[in-house]
Protein 1
Amino acid sequence: MERSLLRGAILIGLSLAHAGCAMFGRFDPVDFYERDPKYSLALQIALATGLTRPNVYTGKPEPINDVPRAQLAAALKGTGSGAAGRELLHAAGLATGVRKLTGAGIAPPGFSPAGAGVMSILGVLTAPPSVKHPALSNHFLVWMPKSEAATRKDAIHKLEELLLKAYLDTLPSPYTIKGTETVLYPFLFGEDKIETHYLVRGGVCDIGKTKCALTPSVHEPYEVDRGPSWQSPGPVYVWHNCLPGHTGDCPGATIRTYCADYDDAGNPINVRDLPLAGEAEHLQKMSALLPDWVYIYSAPTNERPYPVIFHRGETLYFIEPENESKNQKDKEAS
């Protein structure tokens, strides 16, 4: 019973991917580059990349918001004084999350029915909408100072090298790299594209005719004249998730690890992501090897039903800052 209740999440209302467009006015992530003390750093980063955005009527960020400390404290009463970070956030999920809702949906206290949606996070994960909300996937969130690279092409190359090295240096057992292969993608117009695939061995990759590989992919970044106030104050190259509902190219950076079976004619079948890709422990270890201007958003999972952001090996949680909690108490007392 307790475990089922803890399956709530900070991430709620992903039905907004379709129905909630009218709930939001003009939105530009750059508007959130100035640090706001009422937000946790995690929430500030999510706002500055469009993973969440303020509801035009309530002003509250949706679908990701900070856990109010008052609710967190109440939820922690039954967890014991030795609760570590993981248990603490499970309690936070209990305090603010959405239970398995049915029918038209019943909003938890402090959340609108539209924000609550009609599904828990686990329901969304098992039956995603046709346009997947970016908050349901892992992302590299990057503000590279222009002093690190003279041109966009140099910046792309540099970030690709950094991400690939961190990924390979933290590749979990039993997987190893056994070599590379180059694949040419001819284009009718413009330059042909050449990709280097890193061949993976170990685990499921050694079963039958299965072949596994990982491929880094860094798209064209945005360029802005001023980075976030908690990062470089000067001009930066920016990579992050697509904005909700966006179609087409995005300034994203990914490393896809996949495997495929092959038929007798040598054709790939049953292409699928390798389970090691995106494991939270791996992402956290990667973050420790990356520069200060790289963050990793880790989406909710069945095992950890709330999102976090990894930075330099540390975990940033979506929890209301202490100063904002104190301000709220002062308002209620006056």
Protein 2
Amino acid sequence: MKAVWIAGGVLASVVNAVLADSVISDGVPMGLLQADQWQPISQLVSGGQWVSNCYQLELGQYQIRSYDFRLNQLATITTTSYPDQDCVQVPTGTVSIAVAWQLDHQLTTEEGMQAFAMDVQLRIGESQELVNVKQILYYQQDHLYLGISRALNEYPHRLDWEIEYRRAKASGA
């Protein structure tokens, strides 16, 4: 159950972003990745909004999360909570946070997939404490998956296949 993965949920909700201090080339952040690794990532960065399926966070609580990659290395993560498993009833709440993100290197997951290591930085709680989160991202065409982990300070070793993000259609398209 997703309640077991609270840290992973926090990570996933925060995940997908980190410090924006690398060089920008042609609108794409250039960090430690090789030039041939940037093609799929440039599509992600310019891809706009990614929206998850409706998934169970814990008993009686379901969510849809979206990541809006409108600016290089900056994103907005919006989480909307629902009381029903189809996420069609009136939402019980919505939270949006701004995060900074940076891609680091590629790594092989337990499933044998080549994922990107991603560092995410965000502020949480009333004190707005700055938190750094390590995440992995697996991207293929119009599908995006994040890692699942109990620790925020280590890169996950496996992907969360239960939560699938799809590229949102552009308005007017």
Protein 3
Amino acid sequence: MAKEHSNDDIHAKLNLLVSEFKNMKEEIRGSAFSAQEEAKFFKKEKGVTWLFNETEYNSSSTRTLQAV
């Protein structure tokens, strides 16, 4: 009887560990997706900033050339 109780206890603990592992796996998957989305956002933001700076430079150069 004690052995059966021990086996049930071990089985319950293993099920709990598997459940916790699955939850952690989902959290990691969600974190990876979030990180990927942030990387895309920053890459896009960097591109927009670069284009803005290039436009400002070109406008400044154009004004300088027109003044000359």
